[in-house]
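Students often ask why we bother encoding 3D structure as a string. The short answer is that it lets us treat folding as translation between two languages. Here is a chain of 331 residues written in the first language.
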Amino acid sequence: MFFITRRALLACAAAAACLNAAPALADTAWPDKPVRLVVPYTPGGATDIVARLIAQKLVDDTKWTFIVDNRAGGNGNIGMDVVAKSKPDGYTIGLGQTANLAINPTLFPKMPYDALKDLVAVSVVASQPVVLVVRADAPYKSLADLVAAAKAKPGEIKQALAGTGTLGHMAGEVLAKRAGFQVLNVPYKGAAPAITDLLGGQTDYMFATPQGALAMVKGGKLRALAVTSAKRLPVMPEVPTVGESYKGFEAVDWKALVVPAGTPADIVKKLNAAVDKALAKPATISQLLAEGSTPVGGSPEQAAQYVKAEHARWGAAVREAGVRPEWAPFS
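And here it is in the second language, the structure alphabet:
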């Protein structure tokens, strides 16, 4: 999609020549070679799509070179561990998210990295809610209908999960607690089989990503009852938020650029400024909104504060729900 071109290589060579001629500060020298962007999920997923979009915008604006490196596994832990253990020189960055920076630290009994100590947040790039969906022919016409049915039949209404510890899972746990019903989870290895069984009637509802739900909602196969963002989604304006029924409810899958702890502050600031500029462009905003995301941006300090707050919030939610992983790759 974008990558090492002849022009980029010549630019790198020119930068190296300048470095040999005279010493330079890190903020002027970086980057003088390709930057690896680690995506802790498979190609084509929601995180990968945002990562490639932002990387391409950075290439367009700065002419820097990025190589996207997909390192899936461990609910995002494997990729983030690669970033955490990389040399802190600005040449390895990662796109973390709610699961591997805020949920997993409490979900897994042992983690290969400390999300708050081993990684430094550069920018919260975007956030995206999940969408509560049911089959189009289901008897539930609203969130209230689903909650009433779950209360009337404790333990019988089934929630499909794309995986244990995902944002969809945790959103369902928090909703059940707020609404006062018992949630019966049915975990799957990914969103595709979860949606297949939902359509087949083996489960009753699911919190799906906008990318996974939108086409089927528009195609008349699924019905969207609510979204978990604070405001309604521009791509689904007719769908109410959960917060309209349960005040203050919000569950979003945010994505944050992170670097290894110890990365020079001037590199962090330079990368942050470039990301903020890219996020402010109308084309970037429209592309993110079209796939159900909202651009965020802000300073590195704001990003760090946000990640810390989400780490505490979702850690408490995991403990209260008593969620345990189906597997523990680092235990």
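Translate back mentally: The chain has twelve helices and eleven strands. Keep this in mind for the problem set.
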